[in-house]
Amino acid sequence: MGSALAPPAFAGPDDFFYPTRTDWTDSHGETNLSVFVFNDLNNNGAYDLGDRAMAGIATGLSQNGAPVSLVRSNINGFANYPASSSQGSAPLASAGMYDFEVFVPPGWRISTGNKVQSRTLVAVPGSNAGLGFATMLNPVGLARYGFIRGTYDFPEAGTLRLLQNGAEIASAALTPGEQFLWPVAPGRYDLEIGEVQHSVQVGPYPVDIGAVNASPQAPPAGSVIDFENMAPSGLQKVPNGYGGLNWFNLNIMASAKAKGDVGYVNGASSGYNILYTSSGHPATIYADSPFDFIEVNLSLAWPEAEGETLEMAFYRGKTMIARDVIGLSAYGPITYQPRLSGVTRVEISTTHNWQAVLDDLVIRLR
């Protein structure tokens, strides 16, 4: 066996300022041992390209069944538990077996099969904390349950059918104004009642299609406004003309700029910038010429307002042509997919003036 590496071979008069440690018996510092939580967007049970860190997820530490500490994941997805053999107040202060648990938000599930992870903490003399894991924790993936949600908006009761590849997979007898929700996997679907058919594309997020009626749908293809080429300082009010539209009371922001507001991080469905309603007050998107409003990803900035609702009102000139109310979450987006044609103004407001987060707006200019 070879000998240990020697200190640097070249000595100098300033070596006093760059000491080499020789006593490794004591540890007086602290380090974070972390649970990493991510949004498993492709639902494959692994943290890989395209997945995104999740903020604000509650995790717990326990030993022998007794709770020790509860920590939420930060904007980078890490729930940090301080470890230190010299600081008795640290939640991980002594060697032993510990359990780390992730508490799942409503509408989500663990995709990686490790809701609870048991790990042995061992003494590591000379390390910063004096303690370390025998085996590191694995990333914990959360996957959101997919669904198609909407409101039956025909004047008479009827049966709405859900089709995929021409085959019926669900149906419901509905009355005017009644809401429906069908669990689905990602893919293309058709809603059918009589001669009326609406197509729906479900991606990594659940879809709310708003009111389903006899009005024709806009084509599914359009231009994606992802807000990534703006806000060089991290925050910018949207200028008129951006994306070919006009904007009122809407800001573009780097999702990690407002620390602690976990919905900005979780609401970014691509890149790092998001759009939000300034101060949570009503906002407007409008244009001189009609445009098609195809879809947008919607979420909520603040977990304190979990369950807040958003109203989207659409106008053609002075006439309101559609109005939908969508439930929001700070833990991930829902894709709102109304596919409305000939819109000139969209009014956006939350019921209790909490900030709504928007990303990946898809429109078609005429």
Features:
366 residues, mainly beta, Immunoglobulin-like, Jelly Rolls, 3 domains, 14-stranded mixed beta sheet, five-stranded mixed beta sheet, 1 helix, elongated
Tell me what you see in this structure:
It is a single chain. By secondary structure, the chain is mainly β. Helices cover 1% and strands 49% of the residues. The chain folds into three domains: 119 residues, Immunoglobulin-like (Sandwich); 56 residues, Immunoglobulin-like; 151 residues, Jelly Rolls (Sandwich). It has one helix and 28 strands. The longest helix has 5 residues. The mean pLDDT is 94.
Short description:
Helix content is 1%, strand content 49%. By secondary structure, the chain is mostly beta strands.
SSE layout:
Elements: E1 31-39, E2 52-53, E3 58-63, E4 66-72, E5 78-83, E6 96-102, E7 108-110, E8 116-123, E9 131-133, E10 140-144, E11 147-152, E12 158-164, E13 167-174, E14 179-183, E15 187-193, E16 196-202, E17 207-212, E18 223-225, E19 235-237, E20 246-248, E21 250-254, H1 262-266, E22 273-277, E23 283-300, E24 309-316, E25 319-327, E26 334-336, E27 340-350, E28 356-365
Parallel strand pairs: 1-10, 11-17, 17-26
Antiparallel strand pairs: 1-2, 1-5, 3-4, 3-6, 6-8, 7-10, 8-9, 11-14, 12-13, 12-15, 15-16, 18-28, 19-21, 20-23, 21-22, 22-28, 23-26, 23-27, 23-28, 24-25, 24-27
Largest beta-sheet characterization: 14 strands, mixed
Helix/strand structural class: mainly beta
What CATH architecture of the largest domain do you see?
Sandwich
Quick one: CATH class of the largest domain?
A: Mainly Beta
- Termini separation: 75 Å
**How many independent structural domains?**
3
Number-wise, the strands total 28
Average pLDDT confidence is 94
